[in-house]
Design brief:
With 221 residues, the protein is an alpha+beta fold. The protein folds into two domains: 81 residues, Glutaredoxin (3-Layer(aba) Sandwich); 99 residues, Glutathione S-transferase Yfyf (Class Pi), Chain A, domain 2 (Up-down Bundle), CATH 1.20.1050. Strands 2-1-3-4 form a four-stranded mixed β-sheet, covered by helices on one side. β3 and β4 form a beta hairpin. The radius of gyration is 19 Å and the shape is globular. The relative contact order is 0.13. The chain binds glutathione. The site of glutathione has 7 residues, from loops.
């Protein structure tokens, strides 16, 4: 049995978890979960939300389900590859701060804006991200002075934070600031990034080809 069962869909945050799995060289078996199809019982047993990605770690002392993409990244960093991508004591503050920043304020700010919610002055005090512009400026200011989240060294926090930056600048949910573009270029030059993306992109292409074939067969009937 592989070390991990990986429930994913290639068009999901599962792309981030796959990159993380490849960065640490984890041995995994994937289960592709189609949108709209019934969720596999094993996925629901591991994660009541049925959300993707979800991972089950088959460790020597038992199975450990783990969900939430940021938590999956942190778990893999600590568990695999002798902790090579986990933070050192000096990196820990930046590592946790920006990992949680991306999973909380950054993701909320992007989602709120894309769904048309802009908090007013009173609401800014209560919403966890405050306001979109300040979230963007705060992250950009950090990356202006630092090649990676924790400084000069790539850590697992970059897989998660970087995925948000790459996704956001590609789909225009984040501005194409020079700090974001340069950071994205550093990350996408990584061999493990390319390796993981190639798998998801091939899965997406195969799914699209199947959909097109089904549509043309239907048109002929
Ligand atoms: N907070 C979760 C969100 C996971 C999530 O929303 N995943 C989406 C795909 S990106 C999903 O599973 N959608 C299918 C569904 O909800 O049925 C995380 O960061 O992992």
């Amino acid at each position: 049995m592989a070390g991990y069962t990986f429930f994913t869909n290639p068009m999901s945050r599962g792309q981030i978890a796959r990159w993380a799995l490849h960065e640490v060289g984890a041995d995994y078996e994937q289960v592709i979960v189609d949108y709209g199809a019934p969720k596999p019982a094993a996925l629901l047993a591991a994660n009541g939300l049925g959300k993707l990605p979800t991972l089950v770690h088959h460790s020597a002392d038992g199975d450990y389900p783990i969900a939430e993409t940021a938590a999956i990244c942190a778990y893999l960093a600590e568990t695999e590859d002798n902790g090579a991508l986990a933070p050192t004591a000096q990196e820990r503050a930046a590592y946790y701060r920006w990992l949680f920043f991306a999973a909380g304020p950054l993701e909320q700010a992007i989602t709120a804006r894309s769904m048309g919610f802009e908090p007013n002055e009173r609401q800014k005090v209560s919403v966890g991200f405050g306001c979109y512009d300040l979230v963007v400026d705060t992250l950009a200011a950090h990356l202006r002075g630092s090649d990676y989240v924790c400084g000069a060294r790539f850590t697992m926090a970059d897989v998660y934070v970087g995925s948000h930056v790459l996704w956001g600048t590609m789909f225009k949910t984040l501005p194409e600031l020079p700090e974001f573009v340069a950071y994205g270029e550093r990350l996408s030059a990584r061999a493990k990034y390319a390796e993981a993306k190639a798998i998801d992109h091939a899965l997406i292409a195969a799914a699209q080809a199947t959909t097109q074939a089904a549509a043309s067969a239907e048109a002929k009937v």
